[in-house]
């Protein structure tokens, strides 16, 4: 590949390129390699405990070691392997398929990757902090709280923090992909027209946006229970009271609800990209268009929507009432039906085809067959009477491995399918087929005996002797499955040198745009501006583009320069959000003449490194150790500093001159990014408020106020803060009006006013908290602190999260005030408007927190 | 709840003579039907898939046998659907009918499992179950507490299950009874054993280092033997002689683990 | 919308917040809890809609942005409502 037009990006042979790159293809490759590393990591753990399970009661890891291996295997595979592996393809392929030159916010994309990598490293570090998390990947409460974690439990805290970091990466990624797909499609490409893999990614990120926000809430609460001492997930505080007299009877179920509200969509988050790969491979290698494509798409949309209302089928035995069980049984059966349609659609796509059994097709077909078995055994679980008995057994283990690893199977097919595109070389087909054979054999030998030995309880190393033969078989299968990857790694590695060079399209009947450009594609993807306006892919030259944009003056407006920056990371990395939001506020860096898009930035790496250090520090702050405290401080400063650096760095990511943007034609990309992010923030706060409502209902809604809240907790501070926030919101709007009228003085005055009111809000809150911490009454002799009871925990944490949002807003506000002082924003109030969106949102949240936590 | 249990202190023990349909019978019947149908559907669909894959495989001859019948996708075309949607719908409808009717059929069985046999006629034996790390306390109507569950044959036993530390799950696999033991919550489940003997109860939710060994015996006794045993417990109070403390249970777990060659943390 | 319009919205928001506190100071929360609850929450919803529609300009954005926001809201409400109902 030629290096002369890489716009400041070092060549691929240089190590520094991989730290600097913001290009979606480079980042896709980084994701793929990193995810494969975590596959090996999680796989080796699995082999360890499969070895222990070769016979009942064998002792290889010790009981805590066994629990750690089982738990981290699940976490690594679900979070750090399978989704990021799919997002390696999504990064590489989606922009190519939809005709974009990169993602909407390239630097945020790099930030997503580095946060992901460092979250995985933090997960790895947790193994060296005594013990890592050992409470199962579902992390049920209260086993996930420090009270039930042996030793200091720092490793477990690190895992929770690593998951928060991972979730921040996912949220950034979701915002980025949605903005990209709604703002940067090639001309003529309606949403329904984008290739099925891209469509599957679109629905996946929609689910991610909302589901991971709920997970983030659960994890933030858990981290707070670990670090700050709140008591959300502890049903009684001193551990001696009987369950019936518990202070917080909703504790355990709260986790289950939050986790599964995320957890079930997660199943489809994992599976959809695989489905997309299967559909692509079926079309290409059968030489047929997907049968019933429209219905295939409608099915996927239905599943994506319904995935949010099936979570309680994981909780049938928790004592939830019969009506809700019935409802969730119905929605569960309902969600299985669209999959039947998709399976038949794939089967009939083969009819009258020219089916070529290449490696990618073998993996796709294999995945389909495995998925059929996984699906049928899933119907068993839909029958609640059977589900009751399958609960906690290997039936569940076997079923979800048949589904999830079927998904992984399709993704390995995707790896072979796109390998020539990514590397420009063809892999060795014979070795590929051999790997498939070994893989398929290993897979079934590993997981099928689990159906037969289904009476084994999950996560135990002692099982009835009669089942030993099946467990031994499974262990053998596990090693065969593992060995198949050695073949794959060898094949893919050696083919980098020995593989035959391929042209743009090595596959007959491939149709999507990634195959229309060279392998690997050039840095900016296309030889011209891609367009489907004529119903077929063409590349328009600059002249045609200018002609078209002049004809449609509305469209030309989109051609203006805009910096990449984007909305924010999520609340998990609070400072990360602060300056990432600030970045969004940075308007276009004015540059004269034509400027090329930027492709390099070192800041995403530095921000993530800082975040990693800060989180590692946080994992140990409750011990008071100087080492951990200084890590947290250094990391915090490093994160904040690099975010400021990132904000101030000129980075150019132009919007496309011509693009299909339904249904967000009039929503500029930064604004869309901000709104998308706010939508996930709604779910984050919603889950916090939902948690409050749930534990309060479990306790007794009306008794709560009487039993748990001191009389000193009065309405007035809340009312004053409501006034302060409402007024500050009003001032932000006035700042916008002033900037529109090019009144510098007005703009600055309004922003200063906003800042002052926000600070007043925090001071008032601080005084109120201080007072409540130190009250001494008959009911609360030792004050009303974070750990006093569940009501105080919910109060401090929920309003604290809101306070953190206010603080971040203030940092941005201060930054913008300085810029306004220097003359910015006059005549272009967009930056103020986007900050306003965030600030008003924080205001709206308070409008609900005020009555819920102060009046009712 | 506790109050209502105490009122059973001098309960009579009605027999149902084995005519109550046990949860295990319900499970076995449904499972059998699902296994048969599931296997049949699986074989048919997988075979159908393979049939399509093999029948339409490219023979490598380089000619397209369906060239005159179908149009092949071309590079750069706008994605569209292929023909044959009707067949997809037929197949889908068949599968939907099978799935929905199967589940609907099991729903009536679910109601039976949820509500239990008619309690007006079958006065059930109510036992409180408390899970803790790593054992179970069974509290009888008279307040007597054991770590092994003793129940009479042919009598409906209703369990009120909770946990005192972390989330557990109480299950007796052979009797097909299982329910979550959630701290702060009570769940209920019922079963009846038609044959005497010793069964195993296990924990089905990961609860810590001793989870794998959190098993206990369930002893099903003939009615008269049970009555005799229960009468003897009447004098004892809740701090009954047979209750192990959590510390003792930990010792037991450690001993068992050591016997297996390891030591729990 | 000019500053006058924004001011009207601000006055309404301010008044509604005061009304919520008045409901409590008047003792309605103690005497008729659920009526007070409904009243206060309805006032909050109206305020939130006002801020979103006018200050955040949702009224003037493509409807799709509103749907995006509603999507998040419905997801959060589904979680809250169904979870709380399941243990009633």
From TrEMBL, chain A:
Keyword Metal-binding attributed: yes
Chief site of localization: membrane
Pfam families xrefs: COX1, COX3
Sequence segments annotated as region (Disordered): 549-571
Keyword hit for Ribonucleoprotein: no
GO CC field: membrane
Biased composition (Low complexity): 552-571
Domain Cytochrome oxidase subunit I profile: 12-533
Topology in the lipid bilayer: Multi-pass membrane protein
Subcellular location field: Membrane
Keywords attached to this entry: Electron transport, Heme, Iron, Membrane, Metal-binding, Respiratory chain, Transmembrane, Transmembrane helix, Transport
GO molecular function: cytochrome-c oxidase activity; heme binding
Transmembrane annotation, as ranges: 27-49, 69-93, 113-134, 154-178, 199-223, 254-275, 295-314, 326-349, 361-386, 398-419, 431-454, 474-493, 602-621, 627-646, 675-699, 719-739, 746-763, 795-816, 837-855
GO-annotated biological processes: aerobic respiration; electron transport coupled proton transport; respiratory electron transport chain
Residues covered by the Heme-copper oxidase subunit III family profile domain: 591-856
Family statement drawn from the similarity comment of this UniProt entry: Belongs to the heme-copper respiratory oxidase family.
Protein name: Cytochrome c oxidase subunit I
TrEMBL record, chain C:
Keywords: Cell membrane, Membrane, Transmembrane, Transmembrane helix
UniProt KW Membrane keyword: yes
Upper lineage: Archaea, Methanobacteriati, Methanobacteriota, Stenosarchaea group, Halobacteria
Protein name: Cytochrome c oxidase subunit IV
Any Gene Ontology CC annotation: plasma membrane
Membrane topology: Multi-pass membrane protein
Top-level division of the source organism's lineage: Archaea
Main subcellular location of this protein, as a coarse class: membrane
Residue ranges of the TM segments: 31-55, 67-87
Record's subcellular location: Cell membrane
């Amino acid at each position: 590949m030629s290096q002369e037009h890489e716009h400041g990006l070092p060549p691929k042979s240089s190590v520094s390129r991989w730290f600097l790159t913001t290009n979606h293809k480079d980042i896709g490759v980084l994701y793929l390699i990193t995810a494969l590393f975590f596959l090996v990591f999680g796989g080796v753990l699995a082999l360890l405990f499969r070895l222990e399970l070769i016979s009942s009661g064998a002792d290889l890891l010790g009981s805590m070691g066994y629990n750690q291996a089982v738990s981290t295997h699940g976490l690594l595979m679900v979070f750090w392997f399978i989704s990021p592996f799919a997002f390696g393809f999504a990064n590489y392929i989606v922009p190519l398929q939809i005709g974009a030159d990169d993602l909407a916010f390239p630097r945020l994309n790099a930030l997503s990757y580095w946060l992901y990598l460092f979250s995985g490293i933090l997960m790895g570090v947790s193994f060296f902090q005594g013990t890592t998390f050992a409470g199962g990947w579902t992390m049920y409460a209260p086993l996930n709280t420090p009270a039930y974690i042996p030793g200091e439990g720092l490793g477990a805290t690190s895992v929770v923090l690593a998951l928060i970091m991972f979730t921040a990466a996912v949220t950034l990624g979701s915002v980025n992909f949605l903005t990209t797909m709604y703002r940067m499609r090639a001309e003529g490409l309606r949403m329904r027209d984008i290739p099925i893999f891209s469509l599957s990614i679109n629905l996946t990120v929609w689910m991610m946006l909302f589901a991971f926000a709920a997970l983030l809430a659960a994890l933030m609460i858990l981290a707070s229970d670990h670090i700050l001492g709140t008591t959300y997930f502890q049903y009684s505080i001193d551990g001696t009271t009987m369950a019936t007299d518990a202070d917080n009877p909703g504790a355990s179920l709260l986790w289950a609800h939050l986790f599964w509200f995320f957890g079930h969509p997660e199943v489809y988050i994992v599976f959809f990209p695989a489905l997309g790969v299967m559909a692509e491979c079926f079309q290409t290698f059968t030489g047929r268009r997907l049968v019933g494509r429209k219905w295939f798409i409608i099915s996927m949309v239905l599943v994506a929507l319904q995935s949010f209302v099936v979570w309680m089928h994981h909780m049938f035995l928790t004592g939830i009432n019969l009506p809700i069980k019935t409802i969730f049984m119905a929605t569960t059966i309902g969600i299985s039906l669209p999959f039947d349609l998709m399976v038949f659609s794939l089967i009939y796509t083969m009819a009258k085809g020219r089916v070529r059994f290449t490696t990618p097709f073998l993996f796709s077909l294999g995945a389909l067959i495995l998925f059929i078995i996984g699906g049928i055994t899933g119907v068993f679980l839909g029958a609640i009477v059977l589900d009751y008995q399958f609960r906690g057994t290997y039936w569940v283990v076997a079923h979800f491995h048949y589904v999830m690893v079927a998904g992984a199977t399709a993704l390995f097919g995707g790896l072979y399918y796109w390998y020539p595109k990514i590397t420009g070389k063809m892999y060795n087909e014979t070795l590929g087929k051999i790997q498939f054979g070994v893989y398929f054999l290993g897979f079934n030998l590993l997981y099928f005996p689990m159906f037969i030995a289904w009476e084994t309880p999950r996560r135990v190393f002692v099982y009835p002797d009669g089942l030993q033969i099946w467990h031994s078989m499974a262990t053998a299968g596990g090693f065969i499955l593992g060995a198949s990857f050695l073949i794959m790694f060898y094949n893919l590695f050696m083919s980098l040198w020995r593989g035959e060079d391929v042209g743009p399209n090595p596959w007959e009947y491939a149709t999507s745009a990634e195959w229309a450009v060279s392998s690997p594609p050039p840095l900016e993807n296309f030889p011209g501006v891609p367009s489907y306006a004529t119903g077929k892919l063409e590349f328009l030259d600059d002249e045609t583009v200018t002609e078209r944009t002049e004809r449609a003056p509305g469209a030309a407006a989109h051609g203006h320069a805009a910096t990449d920056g984007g909305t924010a990371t999520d609340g998990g990395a609070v400072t990360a959000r602060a300056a990432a939001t600030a970045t969004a506020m940075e308007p276009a860096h004015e540059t004269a003449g034509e400027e090329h898009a930027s492709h390099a930035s070192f800041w995403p790496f530095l921000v993530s490194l800082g975040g990693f250090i800060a989180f590692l520090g946080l994992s140990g702050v409750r011990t008071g150790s100087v080492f951990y405290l200084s890590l947290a401080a250094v990391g915090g400063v490093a994160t904040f500093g690099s975010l400021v650096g990132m904000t101030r760095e000129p980075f150019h990511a132009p919007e496309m001159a011509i693009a299909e943007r339904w249904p967000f034609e009039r929503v500029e990309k930064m604004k869309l990014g901000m709104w998308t992010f706010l939508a996930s923030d709604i779910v984050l706060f919603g889950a916090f408020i939902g948690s409050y409502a749930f534990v309060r209902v479990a306790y007794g809604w009306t008794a709560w106020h009487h039993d748990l809240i001191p009389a000193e907790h009065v309405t007035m501070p809340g009312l004053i803060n409501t006034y302060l926030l409402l007024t500050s919101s009003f001032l932000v709007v006035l700042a916008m009006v002033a900037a529109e009228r090019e009144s510098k003085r007005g703009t600055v005055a309004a922003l200063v006013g906003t800042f002052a009111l926000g600070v007043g809000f925090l001071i008032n809150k601080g005084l109120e908290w201080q007072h409540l911490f130190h009250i001494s009454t008959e009911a609360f002799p030792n004050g009303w602190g974070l750990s006093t009871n569940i009501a105080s925990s919910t109060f401090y944490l929920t309003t604290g999260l809101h306070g953190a949002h206010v603080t971040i807003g203030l940092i941005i506000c201060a930054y913008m005030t300085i810029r306004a002082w220097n003359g910015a924003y006059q005549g272009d109030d967009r930056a103020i408007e986007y900050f306003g969106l965030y600030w008003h949102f924080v205001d709206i949240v308070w409008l609900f927190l005020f009555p819920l936590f102060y009046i009712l | 709840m506790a109050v209502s249990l105490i009122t059973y202190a001098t309960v009579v023990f009605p027999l149902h003579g084995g005519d109550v349909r046990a949860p295990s019978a319900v499970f076995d019947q449904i499972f059998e039907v699902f296994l048969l149908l599931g296997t049949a559907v699986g074989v048919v669909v997988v075979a159908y898939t393979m049939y399509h894959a093999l029948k339409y495989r490219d023979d490598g001859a380089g000619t397209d046998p369906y060239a005159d019948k179908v149009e092949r996708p071309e590079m750069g075309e706008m994605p569209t659907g292929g023909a044959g949607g009707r067949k997809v719908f037929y197949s889908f409808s068949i599968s939907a009918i099978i799935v929905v009717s199967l589940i609907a059929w099991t729903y009536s069985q679910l109601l039976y499992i949820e509500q239990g046999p008619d309690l007006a006629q079958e006065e059930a034996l109510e036992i409180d179950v408390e899970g803790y790390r790593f054992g179970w306390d069974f509290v009888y109507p008279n307040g007597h507490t054991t770590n092994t569950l003793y129940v009479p044959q042919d009598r409906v036993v209703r369990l009120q299950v909770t946990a005192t530390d972390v989330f557990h799950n109480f299950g007796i696999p052979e009797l097909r009874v299982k329910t979550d033991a959630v701290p702060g919550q009570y769940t209920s489940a019922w079963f009846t054993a038609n044959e005497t003997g010793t069964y195993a109860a296990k924990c089905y939710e990961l609860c810590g280092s001793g989870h794998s060994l959190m098993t206990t015996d369930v002893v099903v006794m003939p009615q008269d033997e049970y009555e005799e045993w229960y009468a003897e417990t009447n004098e004892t109070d809740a701090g009954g002689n047979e209750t192990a403390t959590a510390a003792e249970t930990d010792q037991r777990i450690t001993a068992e683990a050591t016997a297996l060659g390891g030591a729990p943390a | 919308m000019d500053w006058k319009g924004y001011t009207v919205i601000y006055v309404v928001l301010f008044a509604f917040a005061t009304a919520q506190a008045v409901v409590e100071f008047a003792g309605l929360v103690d005497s008729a809890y659920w009526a007070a609850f409904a009243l206060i929450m309805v006032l909050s919803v109206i305020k939130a809609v006002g801020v979103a529609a006018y200050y955040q300009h949702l009224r003037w954005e493509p409807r799709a942005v509103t749907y995006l926001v509603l999507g998040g809201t419905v997801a959060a409400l589904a979680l809250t409502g169904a979870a709380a109902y399941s243990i009633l």
